[in-house]
Design brief:
The complex is a heterodimer of chains A (116) and B (214). Chain A is of the alpha+beta class and 116 residues long. Chain A has a single domain, classed as Winged helix-like DNA-binding domain superfamily/Winged helix DNA-binding domain (Arc Repressor Mutant, subunit A). Chain A contains 5 helices and 3 strands. The longest helix of chain A has 24 residues. Chain A is globular, with a radius of gyration of 15 Å. With 214 residues, chain B is α+β, with helices and mostly antiparallel strands. Chain B has 3 domains: 98 residues; 32 residues; 66 residues, no CATH class. In chain B, strand 3 and strand 4 form a beta hairpin. In chain B, helix 1 packs antiparallel against helix 2 and helix 1 crosses helix 4. Chain B is elongated, with a radius of gyration of 37 Å. The chains are: A alpha+beta (116), B alpha+beta (214). Chains A and B meet through helix 2, helix 3 and strand 3 of A and helix 2 and helix 4 of B.
Amino acid sequence: MTLEREWMRGAAPLAVLTLLDRKEMYGYELVAALERDSGGLLAMGQSTVYPLLYNLEARGHVTASKRKAPTGRQRKYYRITPSGRARLERQRSQWETLVRAFGHLGVTPGIEEAAP
Amino acid sequence: MSDEGSPVLLSSEIEALIQEVLEASGLYFAEGREEVASELRAHFEDGLASGASQNELIDRFGDPLIAGRRIARTRPRATRGNEGPEGRWWMSPREWWSEVRRAARRLRRAPGFAAVVVLTLALGVGANTAIFTVLDAVLLEDLPYPDPERLVRVYESDEDDPTSPEFLRAPLVVEYMSWEEGFGAIYTYREIGADLKDGDQAQRVTVMRTGAIS
């Protein structure tokens, strides 16, 4: 299954910030984690991850620094900032509200009970 | 899987794809073009190192044009205020050549603008050349005489008013030439009036009579 573009537009920043909230990552590591941890749903065109990262960086939600990866190669690591964490919390809260509301509406039966 | 830290050689197809992204992004060197290129190369290196095939990586990468356009919308804001990748103010010859080719491509895409640029440069160079030619002839170029650095202009002045120079009188010139350790040569000139005729038409003009006494 693939998400439509509009859904992806809203979901991708939240997913990226969630992963970076766990630990800092470099580009390919993030791309692989997105694909693996979303069960393939967020295996979006990998090229779009980089513009997304640059956008988050421009907005001050992530910072980047270069250092050696475990492979021994120099890589650009992205780390979430306090501003990014605040945005993540806001978006997470909105998603939860949306999912609950959809559960009530019957769009996603069973989700209401499962949601925290 | 490649060895730890060893460089991974990227194929020409992957390099072409990266170039497509960069072209579509429209980024300049100072906006982090090389930094983006380096990160995309790292992406493919890591992908190959993880065991993915080249075709698989290219396929999963997505549309380079879309990626480039999205980078164009975001990247300049991220690098605003930076002078170059990692704050560098200098370019390597490769980066410099890349910028020159890029500028040439952009000019080709905007022939009107290119014409204005070329015309402006041509006028500027032409005007500068003309001004320098005059300055060179009047101030810099040696006068057309042997040993021009020894050339002096000699005046005669009145004892009552030494600040106002007068032309030398002819007897004085002859006297100066008789000095044993005087002048090597003397060139004289005198401003006079003359009539310039062309058939029945005549016009009064000012001319210089010149002479040389060695």
